[in-house]
Amino acid sequence: MVKKITFFLILFLSIGVSAIEPGDKVENFRLLDHKGGSHELFYYDDQKALVFLVQGNGCPFARNAAPRFQELRDIYSDKEVEFFMLNSNLQDDRLSIREEAKEYGYDLNILIDETQIIGESLELSRTGEVFIVNPKNWSVAYIGAIDDRLTYENQKKEASEHFLKDAIDDLLAGEVVAVPRTESLGCLINFPNKYNKKSISYSQQVAPILLENCAVCHRKGGVGPWAMTDYNMVKGFSLMMREVIRTKRMPPWHADPFIGQFSNDRSLNNEEIKTLVHWIEAGAPKGEGADPLLGTAISQSEWANEEELGPPDYVINIPATDIPATGVVDYQYKFVKNTVGKDVWVKAAEVLPGDKAVLHHVITSFGQLETRGPRKGRLKYRERKGLRGYAPGINSNPYPDGGGIFLPADVAFEFQMHYTPVGRATVDETRMGIWVAEEKPKHEIFSMMILNPRIRIPAGVKEHKESATRVVSKDALLYSVLVHAHYRGKKMVVAAYYPNGTTEVLLSVPNYDFNWQTSYDLEEPKFLPAGTTLIQHQWWDNSAQNLANPDPTVEVTWGDQSFEEMLFGAYLMRDLKEEELPAYKTLVTKN
Ligand code: HEC
After folding, report:
1. Which ligand 1 atom is at minimum distance from the Cα of 241?
2. Which of 30, 338, 372, 568 could form a disulfide with 40 if both were Cys (CB 3.0 to 4.6 A apart)?
3. Is there a shared CATH topology between the 19-191 domain and the 300-443 domain?
């Protein structure tokens, strides 16, 4: 009996004690903060120390530790030390954390670990605790209390030991941290999934998530570099899968999940993330049951629209492009005369990649070509219109509401093509299929462009902001939004300023990735009353910390090439008809 009790006590205590220790390595991760900003740990490798306070709503210790933590942030503001709060609490979410931050005056970034997978791997145990990560070797340099001011139910007026400050000073002086570990008091964090990872079923839980969210690209002939053909393949790549999920590289989806709802949302939900990561951390066991990945080769007709609409009425051949085995290929611009031969209404358009492995995206525009000046032979910026482009997994469905796009006979197409070499040289011959309506469709769909060719991005800056606006002149419906920058693009926000004085954020892309030109298709078309101003904000990272940056030492201005930049958006819309207005007008009064 006595033995049993001591065993129980030890177990109980060991759950309560943080297991991450000084010297332990910290793996990379990416998290959004409570304001929707995106932070990747390894981005901060130019700093001397990264300091975290484990925050939790409602915990008196965390609250009491915060003022001193923020004081230290101010003291080290010009010392290349970055301060964060990190919330891994099961019970907290962005809204409640924002409220707590407001009430207690937190003005630093609170990273939210809503799936708990980061807190689990850091083996956090109590809120109120602080730790330092040394970016030189990604190891923990200190963990414990800020100082000795707080004890349970008690606090001293002044601290006599300043553990955290001393540790930062040691690190900045290039010395070994003299006291790398102290005991910290705080509220225990509940990680309920930490102890039952073994029970996750590959055949029942894991494989269905992969089929639903990954196999569209990770299949034979797909854009993904490897195919999820069976259990062995997945097991072999499982550690890499964990890494790309932790850093939010996969599935490729870059919109803030708190803003808007999109029908082509590729992201995993929190439960799916936990299932995959916990299964991998349990050793990716095969377990009982058949392998659902076997025999699931997705058979498809050549064109996605073929089943519903038959083969395309017209095919535009885009001139072939040689792609080398390795290196960087600048954006390719292909100009092709419209060969349809007459004015038509396009009811569906689809770009069919020649080589899916290398073709990352195509943005399709049409219009008149410049006849003189330095841009001779290129599309005029202002009057250009768009047709469906291409990105892996893109929606090429017929235009919404039975609408169509007017394509005059006398235009030229511009195809902006982005290629990524994959280790073998190839020739890409991509085509565009066009399906036309027999008569003028009920609605004319058009893409409204927002752009700002006057952007000027200073050399070396980590964050530079520019904006562009456009007033919607007639009552309209908005179907989808594509925001576009090149290698230095960092984040984007699109907001609507309605004529009644209210504002709505329609899209936020906190971690823009030039590799993925996603058009964000709104789940419900958005009513934009005449007089609405759409504003598109963009931020660029022109510093050396942006690993995609071709040259951090130059000022960058507008240009087609990927080493130049763009602030560009394409908004798929249609005007509303008189008789449709009453239904929408009642909607807007709610805004
Ligand atoms: C829309 C297409 C697409 C989807 C969906 C997708 N991937 Fe990928 N994946 C890619 C491409 C393309 C790459 C190559 C790297 C790149 O270009 O970003 C890749 C790379 C990877 C890699 C290797 C990482 C590297 O680059 O070394 C892993 C692992 C991976 N994906 C896992 C997943 C998992 C797991 C899912 C589903 C949860 C998923 N992917 C969904 C397209 C996709």
Report:
1. 29
2. 30
3. no
**Ligand 1, atom nearest to 513 Cα:** 18
pLDDT band of residue 587 (cuts 50, 70, 90) is low
Query: What residues are in contact with ligand 1 under a 6 Å CB criterion?
Result: 213-214, 216-218, 223-225, 237, 240-241, 244, 250-252, 266, 268, 392-393, 420, 515
Predicted pLDDT at 586: 66
| Distance of alpha carbon 156 from alpha carbon 307, whole angstroms | 74
Task: Using the mean position of ligand 1's atoms as its centre, give its distance from the Cα of residue 561 in Å.
Answer: 26
The pLDDT assigned to 46 comes to 97
Q: How far is the CA of 251 from the centre of ligand 1 (A)?
A: 6
What CATH number is given for 19-191 in this structure? Answer: 3.40.30.10
Mean pLDDT of 395-414: 93
- Per-residue pLDDT tens digits for 414-428: 999 999 888 999 999
Cα(378) to centroid of ligand 1, in Å? 34
> Ligand 1: which atom is nearest the Cα of residue 392?
1
Least confidently predicted of 145-154, 270-279, 348-357, 394-403: 145-154
CATH topology of domain 300-443: Jelly Rolls (2.60.120)
**CB proximity list for 158: less than 8 A, separation 6 or greater:** 149
What is the C-alpha to C-alpha distance for residues 484 and 161, in angstroms, rounded to an integer?
51
Closest residue CA from atom 42 of ligand 1? 224
Cα–Cα–Cα angle for 373, 379, 382, rounded to 5 degrees: 95
The atom of ligand 1 lying closest to the CA of 223 is 12
Taking CA atoms only, the protein residue closest to ligand 1 atom 17 is 515
Residues found in the chain? 591
Confirm if 272 and 257 have CB atoms less than 8 A apart: no
Quote the ligand 1 centre to 350 CA distance (angstroms): 23
For 145-159, 358-372, 558-572, which range has the lowest pLDDT when averaged over its residues? 145-159
Among 30, 205, 206, 214, residue to substitute to test ligand 1 (most atoms within 8 Å of Cβ): 214
Residue identifier of the C-alpha nearest atom 12 of ligand 1: 224
Q: Which of 22-26, 252-256, 302-306, 482-486 has the least mean pLDDT?
A: 302-306
- Measure 250 CA to ligand 1 centroid, in angstroms: 5
Say yes or no to pLDDT of 361 above 50. Answer: yes
DSSP code of residue 198: G
Please state which of the four CATH numbers 2.60.120.230, 3.40.50.300, 2.60.120.10, 3.30.70.420 is assigned to the domain occupying 444-591.
2.60.120.230
Pocket test for ligand 1, best of 244, 394, 487 (most atoms within 8 A of CB): 244
**Would you list the domain boundaries of the chain?**
19-191, 196-281, 300-443, 444-591
Token pair of 513 as six digits: 């990735």
Tokens standing for residue 123: 């083996």
| Residue 576: DSSP 8-state | P
SS3 423: coil
3-class DSSP assignment, residue 25 = strand
Is the distance from CB of 332 to CB of 321 less than 8 angstroms? yes
Q: Is the pLDDT of residue 69 over 80?
A: yes
- How remote is the CA of residue 447 from the centroid of ligand 1, in Å? 30
Residue 519 identity: S
